[in-house]
Amino acid sequence: MSQALAPGVRGREAWAWAMYDFANSGYTTVVITAVFNAYFVAQVAGNQPWASLAWTGALGVSYALIMLTAPMLGAYADAHGAKKRLLVATTLGCVAGTAALSSVGPGDLLLGMLLVALSNFFFGSGENLIAAFLPELAPADSLGKVSGWGWSLGYLGGLCTLGLCLAYVTWAQGQGLAASEFVPVTLWITAAVFALASLPTFLFLRERAPAQGHPASRGLVGEAFGRLARTIRQAGHYRDMRRLLICILFYQAGIQAVITLAAIYAQQAMHFTTQDTLQLIFVVNLTAAAGAFGFGYVQDRIGHLPALAATLAGWILMILLAWLAQGAGLFWLSANLAGLCLGASQSAGRAMVGLFSPAARRAEFFGLWGLAVKLSAILGPITYGLVSWLSGGDHRLAMLITGSYFVVGLLLLSGIDVARGRRAAMETAAD
User: Fold this and answer.
1) Which residues contact 430 (CB under 8 A, 6 or more apart)?
2) What is the pTM of this model?
3) 8-204+221-430 adopts what CATH topology?
4) Handedness of CA 299, 302, 304, 310 (dihedral sign)
């Protein structure tokens, strides 16, 4: 481990950084992917034809808010050395929002949409901030490995939270409890695990970036947007980063659709029960952890771009298998292929952003990465929701259409020059 870390970084600190992925993954697994999303469509929205669109719309609002604030937060964090302080605030917001979701019952549509939007806003903002620590912890030739450690531990965290929820749901259903009675408890479990598992991050992760100061006359917000405007003006100098962000926008649109609609697709298209769905997501988290951890080493060996291209090809195959699946066997195969590609592609994309980021502006560049990811999280799920609604609930067609985003991402990836993108970041650091 020590050979893969930057000088002065101890193994305990890298573990503490990765523990944040462990902590926050329970939120995406339980709320966004496996439990609350299906509960929202079936119980809160009463299985109405527009239910999936309402769910994706609430998430879309939260991602739009993140898009508006992420560049400012990133620039502010760079200017004031405040990544860790902002991370504390976003963590508290997501934990509180997740706990508040337990009060949402059948028919509470507006309350459910509001709390989902708020909790997901805090989650996404924190995700950008924790990612900006990565280039401080690992040198360029180990970014894939260290990013993979975080993603793999994150999937294990999602597995842990989901396992606790699955054990409780199995017991609750055995007692004859309804979903409106046992789903709220899963949200309290998720909030508690997030709060407790994130403590090592705040205890041991150091804020290495020094405060860079700001002109008092411009004000904090003016300074933050000034830094962002400079990055946009200089976009020609970072043309490979720019193309990577557009590539990420497209392939992440497909990933976000799969993550957001996985349980809904399993129940609506494959007729899985809640317990069946939880078991499926439980196993997929294992394959995702293996994919993130193992592929991080592969990425550093074969190169960032070939590794990411291989995962996008895997995503295209996964979509085709899910579309063709009529029984549980082929669908389980496609879901586990998605798990392997999910961990690998998320880790590879984050590592490439770290490679292309100038040292003094990492939080700002990861804010742009977050902007692309959050825009994709609007684009992909909304596309799925609209196709499902307009086709009268044809979830298979919706899955196939959103899969086209992986094809576009693969085409865009072919135009990226990794050496040139890294050179541009190093030249900026030297200046």
Assistant:
1) none
2) 0.76
3) Growth Hormone; Chain: A; (1.20.1250)
4) negative
